[in-house]
Amino acid sequence: MVNMMTFNKEEAFSLLKSLVAVRSYPGEEEAAQQVCAIWMNENGMRTRLVTAKNGQPNVIAEIDNGPGPALLLNGHMDTVLAAEGWKCDPWQGMREGDLFYALGAADMKCGVVANMLVARELARNKHLWKGTLIFSSVTDEEALSMGAHALMDSGLRADACIVTEPFWDGAVIGAPGKILIQVDVTGKAAHGFLPWEGINAGIEAARFAAQVCSAVPEVKHPLVPSSQTLLSIHAGSPQYVITLPEKASVLLTRQIVPGETRDDVLSKLRAFADSLQSPATFEFGVRDPFYTPWSFDQPDHVFTRAFSSAYQRVRGRAPEIRHWVGITDANVINGESGIPCIVFGPRGGNFHQCQEWVDLVSIPVVCDVVAETATAFLQG
Ligand SMILES: [Zn+2]
User: Which CATH number belongs to the domain containing residue 248 in this structure?
Assistant: First the structure.
């Protein structure tokens, strides 16, 4: 089959420049999403907007090509906040040869651009495939993934998904989830000179905090990495008073692996708190964001095979397929909705720092791999 789809680095660059020029912190993605939607519409793809809980729109385009499987190409439009120390305006960016420095250039407006270009080429070359290609540019990935949740809650059906986050050397097929646990410790106030009359919530919280990570170790999974740590511990009043702290709180973050649930974690923590035989009371709550772990470890799945052979053909070597430590919208799309997911995208660096960069050469290469995966998978 002759591949009629071609992808151009300079077109990808100008599209990327138009997206990075519009600030899109979580909760303020709308203007950048409009730039994306207008381009999609101008290129013959009808878009619809699905508003997430943060009031910001996801851009969705469904390209229908008769009966057959459905493939979702997903990316996020939001960026992290600009760090200190940028050598250029983070929204104008700076190009040096084929490297483009800008906020969100790598994470992940380049991946959104790749999906836009692939969607256009598939829309123009419907004789190469069957089924439905779904494009989505979502919001809020860097915060609570409200965009991905809205996408899944909209009733969208897909048989597989490529998330074009900047993982260049291969593909990510799984990651831990995470749970943020707040422990509220209640003791009993008393005069600080008469501590035996009260229960010091600070001391009781500290006993718990000092031992919890070793007493309730993270679950080790053969493929999915995991860790946990204490993020904060607070007790007493910020103002100086000679009073025994009545309240204390501990914040723990823990990565969870496939098979592990939030109830498993909470019941282990409660059992450990009980074992301390503390006179204080311990209450456990889960704070947002909660992410489900995910793993799409199916080398013989038609989607994995389509991706691997496309990657092999385009790049001349087999992809390195692995699990990774980081959270992405695949935690929602696969972890919660069960859709087979592969994370693969352009080459970049300095994520979540100043001088974030993307290698422009890698964008059309990603387009080639994604387009070829799509045409191989979308064969009904
Ligand atoms: Zn990202």
Answer: 3.30.70.360
Q: Could you tell me the pLDDT band of residue 3, with boundaries at 50, 70 and 90?
A: low
Q: Dump the DSSP string for 108-162.
A: IIHHHHHHHHHHHHHHH-GGG--EEEEEEEES-TTTT-HHHHHHHHTT---SEEE
- Domain final residue, candidates 275, 291, 307: 291
CA of 307 to the centre of ligand 1 (A): 20
Q: Which phi and psi angles does 143 have, rounded to 5°?
A: -115, -90
Same domain assignment for residues 164 and 53: yes
CA–centroid distance, 142 to ligand 1, in Å, is: 7
- The continuous run of DSSP H or E covering 270 comes out as helix 262-275
Residues with CB under 5 A from ligand 1 (ion): 107-108, 165
- Residues 265-277: what's their mean pLDDT? 98
Distance CA 134, CA 117 (A): 13
pLDDT at 161: 98
Task: Give me ligand 1 centre to Cα 249, in Å.
Answer: 31
- The Cα 107–Cα 100 span in angstroms is 12
User: Are 169 and 300 members of one domain?
Assistant: yes
Domain match, 61 and 185 both: no
Confidence class for position 380, pLDDT limits 50, 70, 90: low
Asked if residue 119 and residue 31 are part of one domain, the reply reads: yes
Number of domains comprising the chain: 2
Distance 260 CA to ligand 1 centre (A): 25
CATH for 343: 3.40.630.10
On whether residue 165 sits in a domain, the answer given is yes
Question: Is 111 among the domain residues?
Answer: yes
Kindly state the average pLDDT of the residues 229-245: 95
Å from CA of 300 to ligand 1 middle: 27
How far does the centroid of ligand 1 lie from the alpha carbon of residue 120, in Å? 22
Contact 33, 58 (CB under 8 A): yes
- Cα–ligand 1 centroid distance for 326 (angstroms): 10
Query: 165 C-alpha to center of ligand 1: Å?
Result: 6
Angstrom CA distances, 141 to 54, 148, 156, 360, stand at 12, 7, 18, 23
| pTM listed for this prediction | 0.92
